[in-house]
Specification:
Elements lengths: L1 H21 L1 H5 L3 H4 L19 H13 L7 H8 L4 H13 L2
Length: 101
């Protein structure tokens, strides 16, 4: 019985970690230091304000940062920030950013 409980608990933890990893609000927490809680800041005084960006614009920007085809002065910094994001995470993050008003 203990083994089944441990396995079940492990599966629950794994599932909740996977869900958190794709939740846009959770992913955005890494961004708040530079972009602000509501996307209202120019990151390091050099980027665009991302508050309320359309989902497609954010997806395009993040994918561009990831593959090196987008950005100017923040390109190097952002490439490192998005390097480990999956396409699903980028979409979740973009959906969340689009809600920031």
């Amino acid at each position: 019985m203990k083994k089944i409980t441990k396995i079940t608990l492990g599966l629950i933890i794994l599932a909740s970690t996977a869900l958190a990893a794709t939740d846009g609000a959770t992913l955005y927490k890494k961004c708040t230091g530079c972009h602000g809680a509501n996307g209202e800041k120019q990151a390091l005084g050099k980027s665009q304000v991302i508050k309320g960006w359309e989902e497609s614009k954010t997806i395009s920007a993040l994918k561009g940062y990831k593959d090196g085809t987008y950005g100017s002065v923040m390109k190097g910094l952002m490439k490192g920030q998005v390097a480990a994001l999956t396409a699903e995470q980028i979409e979740s993050l973009a959906k969340y950013i689009a809600t920031l008003k």
